[in-house]
Design a protein that fits this description.
Radius of gyration: 17 Å
Strand order of the largest sheet: 7-8-9-6-10-11
Number of domains: 2
Helix content: 25-40%
Order of helices and strands: EEEEEHHEHEEEHEEH
Structural class: alpha+beta
Distance between the termini: 22 Å
Largest sheet: 6 strands, antiparallel
CATH topology of the largest domain: Alpha-Beta Plaits
Shape: globular
Strand content: 25-35%
Length: 221
């Protein structure tokens, strides 16, 4: 299954005036030894995205993520033109029997459900703990066994003595079972820290069941 490795806010229009406000970079296995990277542009307010063909080939998925973090605004202008020239290209997605939905209930919307998370915590180590790393840069990924992928997007504000820090992530998963495993990971890493979890802008109680329900509900909006 293709994996989301980076997401960027953009402001690009096509010849008909349609505004594309999100660019997502995915990595997909390209044979047994390399990974291909491509870009998906999402119209403002939803709608059918457009996708480029392969834009890069790297030796591993981390290489695609690193490539994506260095892309400049002028690159996205050209990539959108290439995506529009291809037109709507259906995406083949591997699915298991428990497959729930693709993002936003659209079979062409992307590889698996994509849900935006925001975590607020007075402890500056919280996002590092969640991503299981000692350093964070936009596009950092954490693969959760059988549960999908977490991608760190950005720090909205740093934690201070009198104000919680705020951090944004994207969760990608492809089935109800995967959503449950994603929820377990979020609960395990966040409970007891005094953190707040918001799923697509709505605060969620830090329990396994509540987090799973919120992920599944958000995946079909």
């Amino acid at each position: 299954m293709a994996e989301l490795v980076h997401e960027r806010e953009v402001e690009l229009r096509d010849s008909e005036g349609t505004l594309y406000d999100t660019a997502r970079i995915y990595a997909n296995p390209n044979g047994r030894t390399t990974w291909a990277g491509w870009v998906e542009f999402v119209p403002e307010g939803g709608g059918t995205p457009v996708r480029t063909g392969p834009e890069t080939t790297q030796s591993n998925v981390e290489g695609v993520a690193y490539w994506a973090t260095g892309l400049q605004p002028t690159y996205f202008e050209g990539a959108l033109a290439r995506a529009l020239a291809r037109g709507e290209v259906p995406l083949v997605v591997e699915a298991d029997p428990a497959f729930l939905t693709l993002a936003r209930s659209d079979p062409d919307a992307g590889p698996g459900a994509l849900v935006h998370l925001r975590i607020e915590s007075i402890d500056p180590a919280t996002p590092l703990r969640l991503m299981a790393t000692n350093t964070l840069v936009p596009g950092t990924r954490r693969r959760i066994k059988d549960g999908g992928v977490l991608v760190y997007e950005r720090t909205v504000r740093e934690a201070s003595a009198d104000r919680a820090g705020a951090y944004e992530f994207v969760a990608q998963f492809g089935s109800q079972n995967a959503a449950g495993l994603m929820a377990n990971t979020l609960w395990n890493d966040l409970h007891g820290l005094g953190a707040r979890l918001l799923v697509e802008g709505d605060e969620v109680e830090l329990t396994n069941g509540a987090i799973k329900d919120a992920l599944l509900t958000a995946s079909v909006k």
